[in-house]
Write a structure and sequence with these properties.
Length: 365
């Protein structure tokens, strides 16, 4: 496979710069024998924590080496979604039981180094399938299907990890994950609503009336998409890494699947659904949402009859995320033109939720 398909960092944005000399001095105290000054570039993907590539010149063994650094956006402290220590510790604990996590190198809690917490990990060299596969790269129907199956096999592997044996029991709050999520996302929507989007009253009411007890408790990724995977550049159906663990927690595994499939745009979906596509799930050969649910539930031994709840919740959660972003644009907290029409997507997701509810035969609890 051509090296041109490997995911590449770009020039670092001025607004996201940091003291490279101070960082380098610190890292050389953490990695024995590390020499030289790194070339720093930045990955453009992701909308939360910032990700940098640090390329060091040839070391004593004659090999150049790359590392990845993650830190919060400027102005944010290490808390909640930007908790570097939590993200680092989750991946470090997961690595022995889920090998697709990058190796952790070091973490820094000293704000005097670059102004905030950060951590350093190995760079996984491979293909990241963003909205489309890399330019010039074409997957056959079989390759697309194999990639899709491999992706959800990794989700299944994650959901089967013994989180207690891995030392991750502290990640969750116990039973009641579904209830907490319904209440939490409903509250977030109410706080971010603008005049041009629906109230989602029917959807929220239906979710509250039809929420099941947690089907199980396991480690969930909470942002599982193809563009958070790293593919083997010589065999693009093979996944070598899973990235972006900042929202990882303990919860209901079907909620993880619902969240993932809210982003899953099929080849035959309508124009508005295709407008929110962030991954190449539309390629001929990819499984449909229904086929993925069938496959997942069979592998996990779950009853798929409750799927309409998880599907509606996933779409509602996506609507809240879109509305929170649009709220910032609406109130002139950002002028990014990409967010201008997010209110249309929110309206569309409400219609999709209501269509599923109308067809649902879920019994009232």
């Amino acid at each position: 496979m051509s090296q041109n398909f490997i995911d590449q960092a770009k020039e670092m944005r001025d607004s996201d710069g940091f003291d490279i000399d101070a960082f380098n001095q610190w890292l050389q105290t953490q990695i024995s024998g590390l020499t030289g000054t790194p070339t720093v570039k930045q990955f453009s993907g992701g909308a939360s924590n910032l990700t940098y590539q640090l390329s060091y010149p040839a070391q004593a063994n004659g090999q150049a080496v790359d590392y990845i650094m993650r830190r919060p956006p400027a102005g944010h402290k290490a808390a909640s979604a930007h908790d570097m220590k939590r993200e680092h510790n989750v991946m470090k604990a997961l690595k022995p039981v889920f090998p697709y996590v990058p190796n952790m190198i070091a973490i820094c809690a000293d704000e005097n180094v670059i102004g905030g917490d950060f951590y350093v990990m190995e760079r996984l060299v491979g293909i990241i399938p963003r909205s489309n596969m890399p330019k010039g790269m074409t997957l056959t129907r079989r390759q697309a299907r194999d990639l899709c199956v491999s992706a959800f096999d990794k989700m299944i592997d994650l959901h089967k990890v013994d989180y207690q044996a891995a030392g991750l029991a502290h990640l969750g709050k116990g039973e009641g994950y579904v209830k907490r999520q319904v209440e939490g996302w409903s509250s977030r929507y109410e706080k971010s609503k603008t005049w041009n989007v629906p109230a989602f009253k029917k959807v929220i009411k239906w979710l509250k009336e039809n929420q099941p007890s947690d089907i199980a408790t396991c480690i969930i990724h909470n942002d599982f998409r193809l563009d958070n995977l790293v593919l083997n550049p010589d065999n693009p159906e093979q996944i070598i890494g899973v990235l972006d663990w900042e929202m990882c927690t303990l919860g209901d595994p079907m909620m993880d699947l619902g969240g993932a499939l809210a982003y899953w745009v099929e080849e035959k979906d309508d124009f508005l659904m295709k407008a929110v596509r962030r991954q190449p799930s539309h390629l001929p050969g990819m499984l449909t949402r229904n086929q993925i649910v069938e496959y997942y539930c069979e592998k996990m031994g779950f009853d798929k009859s409750l799927w309409p709840f998880y599907e509606v919740f996933g779409l509602f959660r996506l609507a809240v995320i879109a509305q929170q972003i649009y709220y910032r644009y609406h109130h002139k907290q950002t002028d990014n033109p990409a967010f201008k029409n997010f209110w249309i997507i929110v309206n569309y997701l409400n219609l999709r939720c209501r269509r599923i509810i109308k067809k649902s035969t879920l019994p009232k609890n």
